[in-house]
Specification:
By secondary structure, this protein is α+β, with helices and mostly antiparallel strands. It has two domains: about 10-120, Ubiquitin-like (UB roll) (Roll); about 130-455, 2-Layer Sandwich (Creatine Kinase, Chain A, domain 2). Helices cover about 30% and strands about 15% of the residues. The chain contains twelve helices and 14 strands. It has helices spanning about 10-20, 50-55, 125-140, 185-190, 190-205, 230-250, 295-315, 370-385, 410-420, 425-430, 430-450, 455-460, and strands at about 25-35, 40-45, 55-60, 85-90, 95-100, 105-115, 140-155, 210-215, 220-225, 255, 270-275, 335-340, 345-350, 360. The strands form two sheets. Strands 7, 8, 9, 10, 11, 12, 13 and 14 form an eight-stranded mixed beta sheet that branches. Strands 1, 2, 3, 4, 5 and 6 form a six-stranded mixed beta sheet that branches. Helix 7 (about 295-315) crosses helix 9 and helix 8 packs across helix 10 (about 425-430). The mean pLDDT is about 90.
Length: about 475
């Protein structure tokens, strides 16, 4: 294959050096993330890596127009309207890593989609985030960020009522149906699995940090090191999800990233921590005197408040996502803000002024981190540019304050309609990504709406 200039900025020298350093690796997962954040691509053999770096790889345009089941969504305009022709995917610089514990040994590299002439394929979620990164750069700013990863470890078999149940400890098979929040002893039963997770993360260049037993049976949280590159923060999140899923499977349990897999307990969030740095690396959210908030951080929260309602489809993209938003469940039900307060949507964490940041709490772990980050950065920019006032701080129960706050959609259908009509969201994601994303969500809604759920039979089969 002839050498072609890569529009992603990838360099064949990276692949050459990697192959020389890892003679044991026989194959590579090449992964592109679609609107739902699902990794799609191929496994290529070792000898195919250099041609991928020198000439890209042809993939059908329809790969970015798939629903959660991998079915074509014709309303995206990416299928028959364009003849489902091939575009070209290119590797992302710096994302080529070895995979831990694979047999035979494999590596992994992320890729992004471009037209054959090198132009951006703007229904690629990664390009949506890059648009916001570039817009901040024009203003002399860059976003530093990190995601939190919450998830459940579940058993492969269901309980007597057909419900999912927590996985037994991989150490000795011990079972627990207790919440076990912050229990260190409880974590010990999963140490073999998490040791593999940490090893895999280190091998991939990810700084996975604190491990927590969370607020539901079988629920855990892994925190990630703060990055001064928001794209790298999103890459860390999607890669760590894949690592956790892979290592859980190896240990005989299920890693579940549904927002709400267990009906009587809290769901799993994907909190996004963000601050803005100027050209000197100074955090412009940081106040001079602790607690005397800068206009910048207040305006940023004002923008996030004002745009939250029309953005909720990005943060809660699936039918199950909306089951997470229950009163007093650590999932915010209105766009309130507060300091050191976990009942609000926008939280300023306590701690060092130099690390001042906004913790954006609405997104579930089932959301696409590239689209979440793009939407939040657009909301921050909107608030700063328009000097938006977030109103008074919530100092107590944010759920009690919800009645007087700005409204957000109350269900998936409302969120889809709000997103489709939103000029802000179209600007945040770009016209093509906005059309693709909302069309996919509308198609998924129709799929769920025509499906007869077990609860229908429980409630109505013998009673109406």
């Amino acid at each position: 294959m002839s050498k072609t200039t890569s529009p992603s900025g990838s360099n064949p020298a990276e692949a050459e050096a990697f192959l020389a350093a890892h003679p044991e690796i026989e194959a590579f997962d090449i992964v592109l993330h679609d609107a739902n954040g699902i990794g799609r691509g191929k496994i290529i053999r070792r000898h195919e890596l250099m041609p991928f770096f020198t000439g890209g790889r042809h993939l059908p345009i329809s790969i970015l127009g798939l629903d959660i089941c991998g079915e074509d969504v014709h309303e995206t305009g990416l299928i028959w309207d364009q003849g489902d022709g091939d575009l070209r995917a290119w590797p992302i610089p710096g994302t080529l890593v070895p995979l831990h514990g694979t047999t035979p040994p494999r590596g992994e590299v992320f890729m992004s989609m471009y037209h054959l002439d090198g132009a951006l394929m703007t229904s690629d979620p990664r390009h949506a985030l890059q648009r916001q990164v570039d817009a901040l750069a024009v203003e002399g700013l860059r976003a530093a960020a990190a995601f939190e990863l919450e998830f459940f470890l579940l058993a492969n078999d269901r309980d007597g009522n057909g419900k999912v149940q927590p996985a037994r400890d991989v150490l000795d098979g011990r079972a627990s149906s207790k919440t076990e929040v912050y229990s260190v002893d409880h974590l010990h039963g999963m140490v073999p699995l998490f040791s593999d997770v940490y090893a895999a993360a280190e091998k991939a260049g990810i700084k996975a940090e604190t491990l927590i037993s969370e607020y539901a049976p079988g629920q855990y949280e892994l925190t990630l090191h703060y990055r001064e590159d928001v794209m790298q923060a999103a890459d860390d999140l999607v890669r760590l999800k894949r690592i956790v899923r892979m290592q859980a499977r190896k240990h005989g349990v299920i890693a579940c990233f549904m927002a709400k897999p267990v009906e009587n307990y809290a769901g799993s969030g994907m909190h996004f921590h963000a601050s803005l740095l100027d050209a000197t690396g100074r955090n412009i959210f940081a106040e001079a005197v602790e607690g005397q908030w800068t206009e910048t951080i207040l305006h940023a929260m004002g923008g996030l408040q004002a745009t939250m309602g029309e953005s909720m489809l990005v943060f809660a993209p699936h039918a199950n996502s909306w089951r997470r938003f229950a009163n007093q469940s650590y999932a915010p039900v209105s766009p309130t803000w507060g300091v050191n307060n976990r009942s609000v949507a926008l939280r300023i964490p306590a701690g060092d002024i130099r690390a001042r940041r906004i913790e954006h709490r609405p997104a579930g772990v089932d959301a696409n981190p590239y689209l979440v980050a793009a939407t939040i950065l657009a909301g921050i920019r909107h608030g700063i540019q328009n000097r938006m006032d977030p109103g008074p701080e919530t100092t107590g129960n944010g759920y009690a304050d919800a009645a007087g706050a700005l409204t957000i959609p109350r269900d998936w259908r409302q969120a889809i309609e709000a997103a489709k009509a939103s000029a802000f969201l179209q600007d945040a994601l770009g016209e093509d990504m906005h059309r693709t994303f909302t069309a996919i969500k509308a198609a998924e809604y129709a799929r769920v709406a025509r499906t007869i759920a077990d609860v229908d039979y429980d409630l109505y089969l013998h009673t109406v």
